[in-house]
Amino acid sequence: MIRPPRRLSAAMLALFFRQLAVLVGSGIPLVQAWQLLLSDMPGACRPSLHLAALQMEQGVCPSQAMRQSQAFPDLACRIIRAGEQTGNLEGLCQVLADFYERKGRERRLLVQAVAYPAFLLVCLAALTAGACLFIIPVFTDMMVQMAVPLPKGTQYVLALFDGLRQYGIYGLGVLCCALIVLRWAWQRDAWRLRLERQIIRLPGMASWFLIWAWQRFSQILAVQLAGGIPLLDCLSEAAAVVPSCLFRQYVWQARLLLERGCAFSQAVHAGRFGTPYVETMLAVGEMTGTYDEALASIAVYYGSRLQLLAGRIRRWLGPVVLLLTGALMGVLILCFLLPLLDMASSIVT
Known about the structure:
mainly alpha
């Protein structure tokens, strides 16, 4: 059985493009530099990477060879294609290395931030399941036999656990079906566009969505413009960096306005997918003729804002989940402890 080619991880992509930029910048031909880096790649990826090197030796352009190898994401293929057009392959390899290095670092930070809260939630779910299956039935029978009146809070908790025990499997099935349907819809552009429109209607989501999208979009667009690619030609390539159908639609509409002679800042303002900072910096770029520097400033500024947001989320997520877990466990303990105390006092009397 032939295994499908394995894609490089973000860490391996960062290493590969970083070293490729260094070797190409040192004057080593691309194919030779590519072959030198094969030994550092995972064994499952070497055959497809070696095949890509052979195709480049036969005259196939690097971006097409990368796409056919199926070891690289579509974004990397698009950016390398832009490097072929501008002759700035070294610079764009550095951009890709920085992009995937940051992506890998963000993923590690996200895992570190979510690991402890997820562990607490799993423990809480296991505690709830164990209480539903083993503790609550015994506790209920004991209360009935002792004929001890239960407080209202304990009655509500028992009713809740009884409902979970009887109908929890159906609720879990409905949740799984809903997740499957959402994943199916997310993989279809038309449905994904509708979902994204609903998501950005949530309070505060629209502004952070634009900050996140413009940080990625402006970073790649600045490099392409600095490499000499016309603005109209590099918009679609830069928009591919943003995994959002809605933002890509905004960029496509702005491109139509640019073809009619509209300025970029005006097109962004008319499409209502810019921010005051973005529109101001684009206007400055138009006046000075330095679009690339204005876009680079946007990427740096919004990158710092996203890092601050991620730091706040990491700082508050763990304590909040720990507080909720403790509160729920405290409520359960009190609901079960009070009837036991009533039982003990009735026995003593």
